[in-house]
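Two entries, shown back to back:
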Amino acid sequence: MASGFFLEMEAPETPEQPISPFYFGGHIGGVYYLKGVEALLEGNVQYRFLEKHAFGLYTSFVFPDTQWDVGLDYRFYMFNSFSNLSEDFLKVGFAFSYFDKLNENYFVPKISLAYGKDLKLISKAPFVLRFSIGGSYLLGEPLAKKINAYSLQESHMVLYVKTGILFF
């Protein structure tokens, strides 16, 4: 008689915890410019103010040729939602880039455009994995590398691939 009572009872539902709109984390990646690939480290903070819109702050460091970036970005989330465990986004950013070119220091504005994906491996995990690919354009002085004593190679365009983890 008691076993029938327990079989008919439904388990109480646990309420879903809402995802925090505040994200923070870091990225690693590769940067391609001037026919070479360099490493990238990046830290960022993001605030998602609507279901499909977010603003963020980031700083990145490219090495071995030292280049620092500090900037703001806007993300528009498209397609899926976290109920499907992934989201695609488009990112537009504006930053200031600091670098050394031929023993002179420059601090120039830079705009960027990227496509990416936030992937949640486990539905209740407090983090997402982020993958993105994009490009940046320096609006002022271009980046440069000395090829030999007589020639210099310059580029305004930078392409990158990044992966990282963001907590919320």
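entry 2 starts here
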Amino acid sequence: MNNTTNGVIVKNPGVLALIQDQGRIGQHRIGLTVGGPMDPFAFRWANRLCSNADNTTAIEISIGGFVAEFQQPTQIALTGAKVKATLNNQPIPMWQTVPVQAGDTLKLGFATQGCRIYLAFQGGLPIEPQFGSTATVVREKIGGLHGTALTKEQHLPLTTWQAHSTLMLPFADRPDYENEQPLRVVLGYQAESFSRIDRAHFFSCEYKVSERMDRMGYRLTGTECKSSISSMLSEGICHGAIQLPPDGQPIVLLNDRQTIGGYPKMGAMMARDTARLAQKTQGNSVFFSAVTIQEAHAINVMEKHKEAQIKLLKLK
């Protein structure tokens, strides 16, 4: 890691760039949240395009503006939000393996559809894990290199380059980040504390993504939905939990959420749909629909089966 003649140098981290793997699983008992990619689908395919295992350490870039200079040859892949990407000022494709050479400069513009971009490297970033993961959670000052977001002129190590096939994810299998299908919610035990009218409003009205949207959670604005619970003991918070604080505006808790909370919850959003939410930006519309836990399990089985059928195209 101290060899600065190889690897990659972050010339500009853009709005926010974080080292991530699939997340810090099983550490809630000591107060550590999961972290990991906000859009796991895009993260996995970035790694697969580089012939990596799914949990290989990569970079999550929010919004864009990222610039990096390579000091050794490797292969990279960009997935996630639609963004103009160039290598030495020449356009390069997303959702495809791209070879780079020592001295090459990668530049990203700003996302025009979605907001989370994933940059994977062949072999990944050889970062020492903390509590079983390299995922950066800035609030907890853990993961990555120093528990912080990437900074200008920061050196990142890379593994030794090996020749692999150039791969591409078929266009038909790439996500549509303008998809406005409802976000599916499994009701929780506190759902009964909301009146039938409020529940009906929650599942029929449009909500907007507010300016308060980050890796901890998305605050939405729209029809108020208030619980009859005036106070409650703090309890464990799951990924996708939808809290309704006293102002009646939903907060969907995401990867860097706190591990406990004391607001009433309507339920929890399916993880597949939190990934869609995490690609939305301020002003985007969202809608909710209720599903049973049995329906959620069936949807997950079907979607996993569909993803397993996806075949990368070998270009050369």
